[in-house]
Amino acid sequence: xxxxxxxxxxxxxxxxxxxxxxxxxxxxxxxxxxxxxxxxxxxxxxxxxxxxxxxxxxxxxxxxxxxxxxxxxxxxxxxxxxxxxxxxxxxxxxxxxxxxxxxxxxxxxxxxxxxxxxx
Amino acid sequence: xxxxxxxxxxxxxxxxxxxxxxxxxxxxxxxxxxxxxxxxxxxxxxxxxxxxxxxxxxxxxxxxxxxxxxxxxxxxxxxxxxxxxxxxxxxxxxxxxxxxxxxxxxx
Lengths: 119, 107
Description:
Order of helices and strands of chain B: EEEEEEEEEEE
Distance between the termini of chain A: 40 Å
Shape of chain B: globular
Distance between the termini of chain B: 36 Å
Helix content of chain A: under 10%
Structural class of chain B: mainly beta
Oligomer: heterodimer
Number of helices of chain A: 0
């Protein structure tokens, strides 16, 4: 069945970088855009950006421009989100989620990856 | 950026109650509006897409309506498993944006 399986929890120091992976299982990755959404503790959902696995084009939220990089490896059906210059406000659960080409809704989400930024 | 405003931010209701949540967009988004349910420690789950289409497997007590800037999510008869937080999300344009959420708890 369709699954998005994310990498495990991370603890990072301020100023460091984190790379979170999202592996697609049970479907062909290329017809589906992958988005990254984060949720700080007790807070709402915040969109970070999108990657098109077919070709690798990206679009990032302005808030994260210059700090976020989204990449993909089609051979392993895996998408990556790299966030640099971490600060305490980046402590959050990071989700990947897919949207099928031609549709506009997130139909499957990863289980989430908790990233804790603490000195 | 399109701002999404949900109301109320929280509500208390009883089993069997009819519950309505409102979402307003800061500009016309046509019907590019989705609703998600999130339970503690879990990823959001799609309920309604393009304002009024019920996602496969979602109970028919959930319904959505609206277009332009005003949208509603209705739960016709609240069930124990419906106590959760609900988010609207616009997919008209990037950056995609979410409402602040509505927490539904037990009265």
